[in-house]
Structure formats: C-alpha cells, structure tokens
C-alpha cells in the first residue's frame, strides 16, 4: 500500500520566462480502500458460489428470472437474458455465457436448440436462436417463495433472493469454478445418485465417501483427492482401446479437455517425435470417437502409454474447495459441504412443514368459525344492528359460547371474514361436508406434526423420492481406477541417433562422422564411463564433452537394479588393482563420479555393462618379471558381491596387470526377470506388455517352434525378432516333452511323435523335408489330448470321433524319429483338447545367487580380510615391475 504524505493540491506557477503553468495532482487516499472494496466485490458478487444454495450471484439471478417468466413453455434465451438484466448489474454477454454453462450441465434447465458441445468444445448458438425453460427437477428443489429471504436489486426497483432455498447438494452436483482477487475456487462435479445416497447416510449417522464424476466420463485416479481441499490432485485419463493392431480408438476424454484440444496435443507430440501417428480421424458427434492410425510395426500398448505420457490424454486437476459463508470466503472439503447442504435441506424442509402447518391450522380455525357462524345462525344477530361496530360486537357475542375448542382466540379479522360470506353460500351450507373438510384438515395437521416430530425420517424419504423420480440415467460415468505412473523414457519413440568420439571424449546427436551408439530420444539421460574411472550422467544434446578415452556409453535407466557394471581398476599409477561390481540406480545429473579409490593416475583395466546382471569369467595376465610364479589365473565375477558404486572393491593383486582377457560369458546372478511377449509387434519386453512368458534366470532359455516344423531354444533378449509363422513361444523346460501330429507328405499319412530338444541353441526340424509335409498340431503339455475327426465315406456311416491320449499313444523318442502312424483312415481334421491334469515337477534353480548383502565374504578377499590373516590363492605376494601401455591397448581397442 502506498503511503502519501500530502493530501493537498499543489499548484506551481511558472515565471513568464519559463514553461506554461502546470498542475500536479498528488494521488493520495483515493486508492486506500478501493482495492479492498473491489476485491471484496469480485469475491462475494462474481466469482465464488455461496454455500447456502451453491449459486454465484449471476446464476441465482438467472434462475430467479426464469421462475418469473415460467409458464411451462420455452422462452428465448435472449428474452431470459434481458429479463435477468433487471437484477444483474452487468452486460448480456456474461449472463448468456453463465446460462449456457448451467444448461450444459443438464440439471436445472431444459434446453432446446444448439447449446454447444462439451465434448468437442463447440460454442452454443446465439441467444436469440436457442430456448430454455426450468426443468422439473429445478422447479422441485430450487424454488419456494414462502421460505425465501428477499433483498432489493442493485437499482432498488425490484426484489431478488438473497439465497434460493435449494434443497439438494447442487454445488457438488454441478461443480463450480471461479477466479477472484487473491483466491480462486475449483469444486469438481459429483454424481447425482451418489450425492443423494451420501446425504441419506449422513442423516442416518453413517460414514460416506464422495468422489467426483465428470460429464465427459473417462478414467480417474482419486488416490490424492484430499476431499477436494487445497493440495489435492486428481489424475484423469481418456479411455483408449485397441481396434486392431494398427488402430486405437479414444471413446471417452478427460475432464477439462475437448476432442479438438486432445487431437492438437497428439499432433504436437507427433511433431516432436515423442509418438508416431499415421493419421487421426475425429468422428465425434453425440459420443466421442477419435481413431488413431499407427504405422505398421508399432506396439499399440506402448503407444497408449505414450499418449498418456506426452499428450492431453492424461491430465492432472487440482481441486480447491472455496465457498462464501456469512459474506466471507471459506475453504472447505466436499464432505463438509455435503453435510452442511444436507443439514440446510433439513432446516428448509422444517420451514416448509411449519408454514404448511400454520396454513392448515388457519384453514381449520376459519372452517370451524364458519360452521359455528352458520350452524348457530349467528348471522341473524346482526339484523337489528345499525352500526358496523354493533355488527362486529353482535357476532363476537354470538360466537363466545361455541369457541372453547378453538386453538386460538377469535380476532376482529376473523369476524370481518365471516361478514364477507355470501348469502348463497349460507343457504347451500352442508353441515356434513363442512365436518368432512374439518376432519381432512385435522388429518393433514396430524400428518405434518408427525413429520416434524420425525424430521430426519421425513428428510430421508424426501431424498429417496428425488432419487426415484430424477435418478434414472444419472449413473456414474467416470471409471474409478488407480494409475501406474508411465515411465516416459520407456514409451517415448527413440528417433534420434547418438554418436560418440571415444578418444576425444565427446558424445552427442550431431557427431554423425563418429561412432554410432544407439537410438535415443530428447528426454533420455545418457550414462558415460571413461578410462580414468569416471562416470557421468547427462541429458541428450547435440555435442557434450565428457572426458577423453570413453569406454562405455548407453541410455541411462533410472532405478535400474538389473544392469550391473563389472570393473577392474588400478589404484594410482603403480598401486594395487581392485575388482568391483555395482549398479547405478540414482545420480545427480551432470556430476562427475569417481569409481576408483580416488588416487591420482588411477585407470580402468577392465569394464563391462551387463543388462541382466551377467557375471563373466575373465583371465588376469601379469607381466613376466622377477620371481613371480603365477602369472595367469581366472576370476569369476559371480564370486564378487554387488555393492555400491563408491565401494573400493576387492583386491585382485598388488602387482601390475599386463592385460585382462574375457574367457567366458556369464549368466545372470540376479533374481529371475519377468519377460512378456507383445504379439502385435512380435517383440519381447520387460514392461508388462502382452503375454507373460515367465520368470527367467541367466541360464533359462526360450522354446520357439515354427509352423514349418523347426524347433530351437534361445536366450531371451529384447532385441530378438520372431517369424510370423511361430506357433509356440514359451519358457523352455528341458525335460518337458514336445508332442506333435504331422502329415507325412511322402507316405501320405498322419504320424504322432513325442521328443525332447536335443541341442540347445540349434535349429532342428522334426518333420520330414517333403513339400507336402505339414505340422497339424503341436503341444507342450505334459499329458496332451487330441481329437481326430474322420471323413464320412460314401455309403458308410461316419466313424465316431477319436479322443487320443498322446502320452499313452507313443513314448518319447529322438527328434529325428518318424513316430507312430496315427491311422490309415481318412482324416477330416485334428483338434487339440484340454490336457489331462498333471502336477509338473518343481524346478530346482541352479546357481540362483542373489548377491546383495555386503556382509557376505567374497571369494576374493579385500584388504580388510587380509589383515585378519586371509591370503588369496589367486594373487602373488611378491612385487613385480610396472605395466606397459600395451596392456591398455589390448583392453580397449
């Protein structure tokens, strides 16, 4: 706030030789209260709804105007807008926009014409072309002039409601959003039926939970909804399904988006290379239908995840419950909003009942007086009276003997009403009918008193009536789910090529003349190791300097515990050599990490990166010098514990190493890895897409059988390609037999055989090489069953179908064996049946080593172990000379 010292107007008069006279006005207290007044006005009168009825002022005035004009027929929206301007101090545009928003929520207003489309974002037609009237629900729950508090309109010419007597949690049903000065509100819409059920539970003293329900449907994760208070978050997603292997369909969109904005976000992601889309078709009308055509060879599952990661198919909404109560903003959760709305409804129902009770009692009172007046012929007592006061007194005297049973005293107003009764009515007065009317009124009074005595039950019945009359077709639209976070690095399209200049120490996407590393994306992180034992993780860029003599570059996977790095380094220029295994799960980007002991001149002697924790066997070669007896020995990395990247490692030898050679590739030393097969793109993955093949250890293999009768086993790799004629892909169990029925083209008969895979990693054919030979059925069940359907020969009865147990039919033979003849009869078709029950033998994992616990003792002891008297058998205790540069060239060239 500006503090002004002077509130006066200073006039500065210039001399004739100077510039013309100027007037300087000092801005003083003009704005002192104006900002606060303006902020209060915007908060209270424009942007934030009231908790009592759930309306903003403009919405309340629209509803009041529609009630003024209501005659059961449609009115032009332009007419309603004009009528509302009698109460609303702003222009027609703001009124028309607010009315369209209410109409699109399909609750209070019965619309006719083009009111826009919340799915496509299309605007409504001009207000002169569309019509509206109050809905039956709106008339039922919003209006009751008898219990409405009134105030003067902005110009004092008319009366408008302070709040409408809304007997329903309308604010939660419609939702509300507004931006005021210094605060905002965002109340999400909830389901009509669930709100009623929650109100009933509240009245019954039971707990309830409220979750939003959006008119655009979609899928939502409300795990962090936080009851609609500040700090909460709702994740919403489009509903995406797979039409075929090259087409996806979006049939529901997230709340807060439209089909147009959704398609725009997909096109932008496609332009940036995050996803690949061939074509998009928008067929949205009354229902959403967006068809996304994909290029061939692209995984639909992966593309769905990419749509959630990089487009508006998934978005986040932050609710903020803010309402007006007693002319002040109040931050409140949706649970408390519903409680207050329900309690307010109960009080409004009570007021209605009390007003009805009073009306019925007044009717009973006058009906009783009327009967006394006519039945006792009191009207004759006024015949002799000459003055009005005498008439009143005569009637009063005549009534006194008969009014002891009345519930209140007779007033002069009551007597005046008696004098207004016409002679015709007196002459036709029927005592029985009058008594029936009084009894009916007494029944109504008793009923209302019962309702007042059991107000909660009455309110519950009221809510149940609303549900029965208006709940049809208002079931929940939004599916409630819990979302897994989509790892953007796993689903992004890698359309950028990464290169490396190992000698100079540069990596980047612009080094096209240098060594190609892999495909990557612009959101990937790259991990780099140098010969000096340094490591760094950095973002993909055109050209980045890491450090000279790069030995390994790859895309970095955060929290990746399966990629294990095997390393041997020399500590300093002439120090001992150490061996270590480690994983890199988290880092600080662009920070250089030293993987050695930190001594100047340290150098990496051996390095390997193993995506599945493989542990190879290496050969250590020392240089011939001095009296060293053992110059060569093997080390198995499987004997080394996996520790942190900052660990020193275990001692290999204190003598210089000439070179390290790879002797044998290793298998994984980690827990089994789950592998899936995506049938659409014919690729393996570890991301959970497609069919789960099983948990694989390092020595486990895949069994692959093709329709042409070729069987082979292979180590699962995510880079593997599979033929389109593949009929079996599963985890290979060596002792599990394979059963086949095939047609022998040479002998023109069907044969059965059972065999085991005899040679790992080699393709073998198990049916004869004849042009007409073909595989009929294949089974990897322990006890397979098949059904043979025979051909019906002319003049003969069809042979019944033959169910055959293949295990009993033939024993296991060699893969090249011909097998047993199935039948000499003509076969129409052969079907695979469900196998017989069989409990497969349990697998005993070989070398299932989980090397995580650092408390275990390694096969190659560290210096600490040596200090307690342990001497490794594969190291020499005598010193030998320094190493030459030739060993380094052997390692990294």
Characteristics:
893 residues; disordered N terminus; 27% strand; Topoisomerase, domain 3
Describe this structure in words.
With 893 residues, the chain is an alpha+beta fold. Among the domains are: 357-449, Topoisomerase, domain 3 (Orthogonal Bundle); 494-556, no CATH class; 557-671 and 852-893, no CATH class; 673-833, no CATH class. 25% of the residues lie in helices and 27% in strands. The strands form 15 sheets. Strands 27, 28, 30, 33 and 34 form a five-stranded mixed beta sheet that branches. Helix 2 packs across helix 3 (77-84), helix 7 packs across helix 10 (334-375) and helix 10 packs antiparallel against helix 14 (431-453). The longest helix has 42 residues, at 334-375. The protein is elongated, with a radius of gyration of 44 Å.
How much helicity do the residues have? 10-25%
Mean pLDDT: 85
Low-confidence runs of at least 5 consecutive residues: 1-17, 844-893
State the distance separating the first and last CA atoms: 72 Å
Radius of gyration: 44 Å
Largest sheet: 5 strands, mixed
Structural category is: alpha+beta
- Beta-strand proportion: 25-35%
How many strands appear in the DSSP assignment?
50
In DSSP terms, counting alpha (H) and pi (I) runs of 4 or more, how many helices? 19
**How would the global form be characterised?**
elongated
């Amino acid at each position: 706030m500006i503090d002004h010292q002077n509130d006066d107007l200073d006039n500065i008069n210039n001399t004739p030789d100077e510039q013309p006279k100027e007037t300087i006005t000092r801005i003083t207290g003009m704005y002192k209260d104006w900002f606060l007044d303006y902020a209060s006005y915007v908060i209270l009168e424009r942007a934030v709804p009231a908790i009592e009825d759930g309306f903003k002022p403009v919405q309340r005035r629209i509803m009041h105007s529609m009630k003024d004009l209501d005659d059961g027929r449609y009115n032009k929206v332009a007419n309603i807008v004009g009528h509302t301007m009698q109460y609303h101090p702003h222009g027609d545009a703001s009124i028309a926009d607010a009315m369209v928003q209410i109409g699109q929520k399909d609750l209070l207003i019965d619309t006719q014409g083009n009111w826009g489309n919340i799915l496509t974002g299309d605007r409504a037609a001009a207000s002169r072309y569309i019509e509206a009237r109050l809905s039956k629900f709106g008339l039922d729950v919003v209006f009751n002039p008898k219990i409405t508090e009134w105030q003067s309109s902005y110009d004092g010419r008319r009366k408008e409601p302070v709040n409408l007597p809304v007997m329903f949690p309308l604010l939660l049903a419609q939702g509300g959003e507004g931006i005021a000065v210094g605060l905002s509100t965002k109340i999400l819409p909830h389901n009509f039926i669930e709100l009623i059920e929650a109100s009933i539970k509240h009245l019954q003293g039971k707990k309830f939970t409220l979750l939003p329900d959006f008119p655009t449907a979609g899928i939502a994760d409300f795990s962090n909804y936080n009851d609609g208070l500040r700090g909460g978050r709702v994740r919403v997603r489009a509903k995406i399904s797979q039409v075929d292997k090259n087409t996806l369909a979006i049939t529901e969109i997230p709340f807060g988006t439209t089909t147009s904005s959704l398609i725009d976000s997909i096109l932008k992601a496609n332009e940036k290379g995050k996803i690949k889309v061939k074509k998009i078709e928008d067929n949205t009308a009354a229902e959403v239908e967006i068809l996304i055509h994909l290029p061939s060879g692209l995984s639909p599952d992966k593309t769905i995840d990419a749509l959630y990661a990089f487009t508006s198919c998934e978005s986040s909404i932050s609710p903020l419950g803010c309402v007006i109560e007693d002319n002040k903003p109040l931050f409140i959760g949706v649970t408390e909003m519903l409680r207050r709305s329900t309690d307010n409804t109960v009080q409004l129902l009570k007021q209605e009942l009390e007003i009805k009770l009073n009306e019925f009692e007044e009717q009973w009172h006058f009906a009783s007086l009327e009967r006394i007046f006519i039945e006792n012929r009191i009207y004759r007592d006024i015949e002799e009276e000459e003055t009005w006061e005498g008439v009143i007194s005569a009637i009063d005297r005549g009534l006194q003997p008969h009014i002891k049973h009345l519930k209140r005293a007779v007033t002069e107003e009551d007597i005046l009403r008696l004098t207004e009764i016409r002679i015709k009515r007196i002459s036709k007065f029927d005592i029985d009918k009058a008594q029936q009317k009084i009894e009916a009124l007494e029944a109504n009074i008793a009923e209302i008193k019962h309702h007042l005595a059991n107000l909660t039950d009455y309110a519950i019945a009221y809510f149940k009536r609303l549900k029965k009359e208006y709940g049809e077709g208002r079931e929940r639209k939004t599916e409630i789910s819990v979302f897994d976070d989509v790892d953007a690095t796993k689903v992004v399209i890698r359309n950028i090529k990464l290169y490396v200049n190992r000698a100079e120490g540069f990596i980047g996407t612009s080094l096209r003349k240098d060594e190609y590393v892999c495909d990557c994306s612009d959101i990937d992180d790259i991990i780099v190791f140098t010969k000096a034992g340094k490591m760094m993780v950095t973002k993909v860029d055109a050209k980045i300097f890491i450090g000279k003599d790069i030995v390994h570059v790859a895309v970095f996977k955060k929290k990746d515990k399966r990629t294990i790095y095997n390393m041997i380094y020399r500590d300093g220029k002439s120090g001992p050599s150490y061996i270590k295994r480690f994983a890199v799960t988290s880092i600080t980007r662009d920070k250089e990490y030293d993987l050695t002991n930190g001594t100047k001149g340290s150098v990496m002697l051996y390095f390997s990166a193993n995506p599945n924790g493989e542990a190879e066997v290496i050969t250590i070669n020392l240089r011939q010098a001095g009296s060293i007896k053992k110059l060569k020995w093997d080390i198995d990395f499987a004997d080394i514990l996996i520790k942190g990247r900052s660990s020193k490692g275990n001692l290999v030898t204190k003598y210089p190493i000439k070179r390290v050679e790879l002797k044998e590739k290793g298998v994984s030393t980690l827990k089994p890895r789950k592998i899936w097969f995506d049938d659409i793109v014919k690729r393996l993955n570890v991301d959970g897409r497609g069919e789960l093949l099983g948990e694989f250890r390092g020595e486990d293999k895949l069994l692959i059988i093709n329709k042409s009768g070729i069987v082979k086993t292979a180590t699962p790799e995510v880079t593997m390609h599979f033929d389109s004629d593949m009929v079996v892909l599963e985890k290979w169990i060596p002792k599990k037999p394979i059963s086949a029925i095939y047609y022998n083209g040479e002998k023109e008969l069907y044969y059965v055989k059972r065999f085991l895979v005899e040679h790992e990693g080699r393709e073998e054919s198990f049916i004869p090489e004849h042009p007409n030979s073909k595989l009929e059925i294949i089974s990897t069940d322990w006890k397979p069953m098949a059904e043979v359907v025979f051909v019906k020969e002319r003049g003969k009865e069809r042979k019944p179908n033959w169910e055959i147990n293949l295990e009993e039919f033939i024993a296991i033979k060699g893969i090249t064996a011909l097998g047993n003849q199935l039948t000499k009869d003509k076969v129409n078709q052969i079907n695979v049946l469900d196998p017989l029950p069989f409990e497969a033998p349990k697998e005993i994992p070989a070398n299932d080593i989980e090397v995580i616990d650092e408390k275990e003792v390694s096969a190659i002891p560290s210096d600490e172990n040596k200090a307690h008297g342990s001497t490794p058998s594969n190291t020499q205790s005598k010193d030998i000379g320094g190493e030459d540069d030739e060993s380094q060239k052997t390692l990294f060239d």
